[in-house]
Amino acid sequence: MSSGLGSAERWELVDQIVSNTVEYREQRDSFTDIMGDLLVDPWFGIPFAVTVLYGAWAFFGAVAGFFTDGYFVPLFDEYWLPWLQSVFPWEGSWVYFILIGDPAAQRAVVSWGMLTSGLFVAIGVVLPAIFALYLVLVILEDSGYMSRLAVLLDTVFEKIGLQGYSVIPMVLSFGCNVPGVAATRNLESKKQRFMMMTLLSVFIPCGAQLGIMLSLIPQYTGYILLYLLIGFFTVGAVLDKLLPGKTPKLITDVPPMRKPTIGNVSTKLWLRMRGFFVSAIPFVLLGVGLINVLWMGGAIDWLSTTLEPLLTGWFGVPKETVPGLVAGFIRKDLAVAQLTGVGLSPFQTVMSVVMISIYFPCAATFAMLIKEGKSSFGIVKTLVGAVAILGVTLFLWGGLLRLIGMIMGVA
Questions:
Q1: What are the residue ranges of helices labelled H in 68-126?
Q2: Exposed, middle or buried by CB within 10 Å (0-12, 13-18, 19+), for 131?
Q3: Which of 400, 383, 338 is nearest to 209 (CA)?
Q4: Is 394 helix (H, G, I), strand (E, B) or coil?
Q5: What's the rounded mean pLDDT across residues 171-188?
Q6: In 175-320, which ranges are continuous DSSP H helix?
Q7: Which of 16, 48, 77, 162 is deepest in the core (most CB within 10 A)?
Q8: Which of 299, 338, 292, 298 is closest to 317 using CA atoms?
Q9: CA 245/CA 242 separation, integer angstroms
Q10: Residues 136, 161: contact at Cβ < 8 Å?
Q11: Helix count and strand count (H, E) for the chain
């Protein structure tokens, strides 16, 4: 192009070249193109998203319940636990207590041994739940729907200083908080990463905890989740006002809708399940062992005695729940399971599970907070800030639930 041409002449030349070289023809949108556009339209997309998420939740509960109650409970309670109790030596020793637990226990979930409760929770409860959740998530990702869900929910998350892609670590955390916290590294700003890590650690129950809740208290699980999600957005809005920094606008490339392929789905599913086997199962087993060691050393009894006036006075739970609540600092799912041995009213059950959900994260999540804290406000600021938010949220949001119960006359 000649440098002597003016701006208008250059555009005329461009138009001439385009008219001589580009051929236009009508193209009708395919069904997938139409669906892709509709899924980001709020009038159609939001009801569709609610349907999809409810369907995913129903599938998650059905699969987890089918395998846990139908296969793993009989396997562990009728075969594995009695066999271990009969063949394992040194009954009454500390080794037996740590590995097998209570020699008189008739259910694996309350025997509290690494090879009994630990394996049952990891294999019998968490594994089916994780498989169901990751299968749904992988299919939604491979179809191109997750990107559209992020665009659709961006307006909602923007209200609390986050972006639509925050839905991905949020959904991952319903399987395990560890990959959920790790996924926050994809968020753009330090403020967003810190907020999301903290909110996930406080308000999103992992697959292990969800599996136990669905197995032991299915009639209360929906109410507990609703209260936790309300807390997620309420506390998120407060943090958005208090923390420095701004929320960048979401700019993303939305891929075309496509049919998920078996190869992609199976590969992604295997990679995530392999991560679960490598990281989560050892933490479950070590968590059970650590609880037993602390119990034998008297640490659980000391903490229970120290915290009993505070927990029973502020939250209104009976003193019998305090050891389980203290044990939840190691593994939240095991703490929920331990509540089954205590006679609680419906409201006390809900109150106790909410407390377990919103206080200090499990050891694996805490380790991930340390790792990811380096990329947000720094390790020290991240941990101090997160612990402070955890403490305030526990007493305010937990206390609010008890106040609601008192007003309703059920607390």
A1: 73-75, 81-87, 94-99, 119
A2: buried
A3: 338
A4: helix
A5: 77
A6: 177-183, 190-203, 207-216, 218-242, 262-275, 281-297, 299-315
A7: 162
A8: 338
A9: 10
A10: no
A11: 22, 0
Name the CA radius of gyration of the chain, rounded.
25
In whole angstroms, what is the distance from residue 227 CA to residue 222 CA? 9
Rounded-to-10 torsion of CA 241, 245, 246, 251: -130
- Position with higher pLDDT, 346 vs 240: 240
In the predicted model, is pLDDT for residue 2 greater than 60?
no
Following DSSP, what letter does each residue of 286-302 receive, concatenated?
Answer: HHHHHHHHHHHHTHHHH
Q: Give me 31's structure tokens.
A: 């069904």
Q: What is the pLDDT of residues 56-70, one digit of tens each?
A: 777 877 887 788 888
pTM of the model: 0.69
Instruction: Tokens 């089916």: give the residue.
Output: 128
Task: Tell me the average pLDDT across 139-150.
Answer: 86
Alpha-carbon distance values, 357 to 134, 163, 199, 280 (Å): 21, 24, 11, 18
3-class SS string, 149-181: HHHHHHHHHHCCCCCHHHHHHHHHHCCCHHHHH
Please determine, for residue 1, whether its predicted confidence score (pLDDT) is greater than 50: no
Q: Are 165 and 192 in contact (CB under 8 A)?
A: no
> Is the pLDDT reported for residue 280 higher than 70?
no
Q: Are 312 and 132 in contact (CB under 8 A)?
A: no
Range with top average pLDDT, 90-94, 176-180, 320-324:
90-94
Please compute the mean of the pLDDT values over residues 258-270 and round it to a whole number.
Answer: 89
Please write the tens of the pLDDT for every residue from 7-43: 677 778 888 888 888 777 766 667 677 777 788 788 8
Sequence-distant (≥ 6) Cβ neighbours of residue 411 within 8 angstroms: 316, 347, 351, 402, 404, 405
